[in-house]
Amino acid sequence: MSYKLITRFIIIILSFVSFTPNSSAMNKDEFNNVYWYGYTWGSLSTLCLFYKQNSINKINAEYLASKLIQQAEVEIKDVNLYTSLVNLTKKDTFKECQHLIQDL
Fold first, then answer.
1. pTM above 0.85, yes or no
2. 6, 31, 81, 101: which one has the fewest Cβ atoms less than 10 Å from its Cβ?
3. What is the mean pLDDT of residues 79-85?
């Protein structure tokens, strides 16, 4: 895995951390829903990338994917937003990693 990829990933994560609910028009619950939606999708996408590059094995990838989905189910209170997240995992962009997520 390249140093540039890791650096970009860290910069992206840090830029999201600096975004606070006080700087938006959303209330706390809306912000929480959107935050966990983005966090989970970004984490699943990164996990898929690492898996496709053989940087993480199937057992660990399945475990992490299941934990991310479980956490999202708890944190995302908006059912439509959670359903949207689940539907993203069924799109072609996630095609090579769909088998990592079970029971959806």
1. no
2. 6
3. 93
